[in-house]
Amino acid sequence: MITPFTEAGTLDLEGARQLAGRLVAQGCDGLVLNGTTGESPTTTDTEKAELVAAVREAVGEDVTLVAGVGSAATRHTIEGALAAEKAGADAVLVVTPYYSRPPQEAVEAHFRQVADASGLPVMLYDIPGRTGTRIEPETMIRLAEHPRIVAVKDCSYDFLGTQKVLAHTDLAYYAGCDEHVLALYAVGAAGCVSTVANAAPGPIAAILDAFDAGDTARATELQLRATPLIEAMMGAGLPGTVTAKALLARLGLPAGPVRAPLLPAGREAADGLLARYETLAAP
Fold first, then answer.
1. Can you give the residue range of the structural domain that contains 168?
2. In principle, which of 46, 74, 148, 260 could form an S-S bond with 115, CB 3.0–4.6 Å?
3. Is 46 annotated among the ligand-binding residues?
4. Strand 91-95 to strand 64-68: parallel, antiparallel, or no bridges (unpaired)?
5. Which residues are catalytic?
6. How far does CA 81 lie from the centroid of its chain?
7. In sequence order, which residues have a C-beta less than 8 Å from that of residue 95 and are 6 or more positions away?
8. Do the beta carbons of residue 235 and residue 157 sit within 8 Å?
9. Residue 193 in marked binding region
10. What is the CA radius of gyration of the chain?
11. Contact present, 11 and 47 (Cβ < 8 Å)
């Protein structure tokens, strides 16, 4: 989920409540807060905790809330996990430490220390394109032995490595790239953590629903139908946060500005996003 801001750039908690309610009503059975699309690098620890508490109040206890707490420092990540637990999160999303490029032994130690520090389940976030460091499949398999490391948000773009981990562990995998929603689900994933669903939760949920119903042809049709919007939001050179906020604003939903160093989408890009969305949403 995006983190909505007011036009003045402050946290828009009422907007967050509205967005969360819409997402749940249109097919999302869980929400990830303070992730990449939620602009976690530029929100404060206080804002992160306030967002979790506000969304928990809005959606009640039956909707799973996963809070992003990953940072470049193990101590800071642990502090974030404890704060998320206090604020009402059900689990934490922990990205690989970035910039310092730790070797695999250090990556494994980092995740184990975070998992040991709180009572919340941990979803590992494997996105080497942003962090510079992969969680190698062998590391993932060892981490799966920890009782609180239970899930993975997969943005590795290593489909073979992902299948290897799926074959050797009980980790619940979630596609973190919208173009992989159906492909990963078909080989045993548990679902997806979607940026595109910020604007189009129903069409993304429908892909998984069709597959669950045994209608794989329909699931394929729905994935391909969503592809133009996925490409426009995720593959056109702008960050997903920028495109999601631009499209939500065109739909009259809370979004607000992005925080620097990100810049807003231009009018032409926003027009194109709306056109792709309207095509997808049409009967």
1. 13-216
2. 148
3. no
4. parallel
5. 125, 153
6. 16
7. 68, 70, 71, 125, 127, 130, 131
8. no
9. yes
10. 18
11. yes
Our count of domains for the chain comes to 1
H helix count then E strand count, the chain: 12, 7
Structure tokens at 23: 């997402």
What's the 3-state SS for 236-253?
CCCCHHHHHHHHHHHCCC
* Residue 151, φ and ψ in degrees, nearest 5: -150, 165
Number of residues that this document lists for the chain: 283
Please indicate, yes or no, if residue 59 is contained in any of the structural domains. Answer: yes
162: its two tokens: 């992902």
CA distance 281 to 118: 41
Per-residue pLDDT of the chain (283 residues; tens, 9 = 90+): 999 999 999 999 999 999 999 999 999 999 999 999 999 999 999 999 999 999 999 999 999 999 999 999 999 999 999 999 999 999 999 999 999 999 999 999 999 999 999 999 999 999 999 999 999 999 999 999 999 999 999 999 999 999 999 999 999 999 999 999 999 999 999 999 999 999 999 999 999 999 999 999 999 999 999 999 999 999 989 999 999 999 999 999 999 999 999 999 999 999 999 999 999 998 7
Residue 224 lies in a domain: no
Distance of alpha carbon 256 from the chain centroid = 19
Q: Looking at the domain assignment, is residue 119 inside a domain?
A: yes
Q: Which amino acid is at 269?
A: A
Beta strands per DSSP E along 42-148: 64-68, 91-95, 122-126
Q: What is the CATH number of the domain that holds 176?
A: 3.20.20.70
Can you tell me whether residue 124 is helix, strand or coil? Answer: strand
In a domain, residue 250? The reply is: no
- 52: its two tokens: 């979790």
